[in-house]
Specification:
Elements lengths: L4 E6 L24 H15 L4 E4 L1 H6 L1 H9 L3 E4 L12 H19 L5 E2 L13 H7 L4 E2 L20 E2 L6 E2 L4 E4 L2 E4 L4 H5 L2 H15 L4 E4 L9
Parallel strand pairs: 1-2, 1-10, 2-3, 4-5, 5-7
Antiparallel strand pairs: 6-7, 8-9
Helix pairs in contact: 1-3
């Protein structure tokens, strides 16, 4: 039986999209960096469980804190791209997006020494506004994306997207959506995020089990290093 996918979006606490209007990117370098210690906590949990995962990592982290990326690669996990500076894909022009995914991939490969095959857009921002994005990912050397969340949400979501992995038309990119469970005629988020932080663990576990049973595929779950940091 295929295992579920526990993925990590490697960004620091001040890089969350909801803080964009409060924390300007020009101030990132002046703020206390907590990502290394929190990634170490995540790596310890993976090691304790005897599993490996995919770490969708900001190019900014690789550029400013390369030891984080080296530690992820050295412990046998997959290093993938989360873009350079956590900018939503639909807020970029196609030319800006192309430059972003190309630079982040090359930077992560140089630092980790590993090939980067996967990409996850900031805040699940590949949707009907970015019909050009997957082809650009293919041209930039990526093999898969995990950038679509098939739910309705006030900040993101593509509720009409498939619940299971699918190839994007006119490109060679496999899109692996975040997990959603079909309940009472609607897609319910089952992949982590605020629901995982705020609801009892049993709630998320039951949704993951439902995804496996009804969707017929392993679940794709995600978390952030700052979610392991009660001292932030």
């Amino acid at each position: 039986e295929l295992p579920n996918a526990l993925t990590c979006d490697v960004e620091d606490y001040f890089q969350v999209s909801a803080f964009e209007h409060l924390v300007h990117r020009s101030t990132w370098g002046d703020r206390e960096c907590r990502v290394l210690r929190n990634v170490e906590r995540a790596l310890d949990l993976y090691a304790e469980a005897g599993v490996h995962g995919t770490f969708f990592t900001l190019g900014w982290v690789a550029e400013n804190h390369p030891d984080v990326v080296r530690r992820i690669a050295a412990t046998g996990h997959e290093v993938a791209s989360h873009g350079m500076q956590h900018v939503r894909a639909w807020s970029q022009t196609p030319e800006q997006f192309r430059a972003d995914i190309d630079r982040s991939r090359k930077l992560l490969e140089d630092v980790s020494g590993c090939r980067v095959r996967g990409y996850r857009a900031a805040s699940w921002s590949l949707d009907e506004r970015t019909s050009w994005a997957h082809q650009m990912l293919a041209e930039a050397g990526y093999q898969y994306s995990s950038s679509i969340y098939p739910i309705s949400h006030d900040h993101y979501g593509t509720p009409d997207a498939p619940l299971t992995p699918f190839y994007i038309a006119d490109s060679d990119i496999l899109e692996i959506p975040a997990s959603a469970a079909r309940i009472a005629g609607r897609n319910v988020p089952a992949a982590g995020g605020g629901y995982f932080r705020l609801m009892p663990y049993a709630f998320s576990r039951s949704l993951v089990d439902r995804v496996r049973q009804h969707n017929g595929v392993p679940a794709v779950f995600y978390f952030h290093p700052w979610e392991l940091d009660p001292e932030q």
